[in-house]
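The data layer described in this paper is built around a simple, fixed record for each protein. We quote a single record here, exactly as it is kept in our systems:
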Amino acid sequence: MLCACPEPVEGFSVVKNSMSNFWKSARRWLPGVLISLAVIAVILYFVDLRRLAEAIRSADYRLLLASLTISVGWLAVRGLVWRTLLRERASYRDVFLTLCEGYLLNNFLPFRLGEFGRAFLLGRKSGLGFMEILPTIVIERVLDLAFSAAILLSAVPFVVGAAGAEQVAYIVGGVMLVGLVALYFLARYRDWAMRQFDRLSKRWPRLHKRGGNFLESMFSGLTILMDGWLFVRALFWMTLNWAIAILQFYLALLAFFPHAQPMWAMFGLGAAAFGGAIPSLPGAVGTYEGALGGALALVTGDQATSLATALIVHLFSYLVYGILGTYALSTEGETLMGVYRQLRKRQEEPGRASGQ
């Protein structure tokens, strides 16, 4: 008579746990995948792919090369933005290379891990705490969305049939302004905020200890909002950064539309920023092309050439970030998947919230 063995039950338990973990993870990445796939399906349905290929073949590649070259300058200035927000406590070389690494991670890894990757990788090089660095990235992103909303609002009056975008820009710009003000008050009244946290979390010792360390580091990173001159400098570099972005995109636009106007570039960039902010596949695949191509189609009436422009501009970002980000990782003996595994391991260790 055969005896019953526990292995099948254990095997079933392992499979059940694996499926449970899979669906928990899917709640995070599945919406972005579905949104990207839906946008790609709409693009493929409405756009004439033959005309798309012809538009790419007939583009002025001299202007595209100039746009590609300027994109490196854009990255260089973005490094100055971030280093200023860091109160110049890290070398420019470390900041620039880490920035390239972060954009590379965002293009290929899910969950916007590039933002956490930047804080993690720069923390190892500079000696700054992870939660000292992360708030500067949050501030940078808030400023980005505020600038994109302002640029979109500036361009909307010159764009026919784009009235709906104006309301979106007002809403997003208002939310970002409220967020920035909230961060300012947290930095200004950090002692009061810490006292409230201590009072409310005393009954949970682990939360009290870990959360306290987390908030201390986060508030330290927000102190730039209390330094008026330093923040003005950050705004100056961010303004220059966006001006370079407009020039870069305008040149790419001229390569496809010789009679393009600068306002088209501003409108397209503003729309692309919002397209890149919604849930999607890594690198905003689909949503970026949908937002930018759709915005350009509104002003040009040419869906195929507008999509060709969006595809080439997006490809350029992959090319620049891929080359510079891979070089930066290689100088540290790292690989894309190696950093990904380290980040996932870090996410599974909540007790290290304020560490390096």
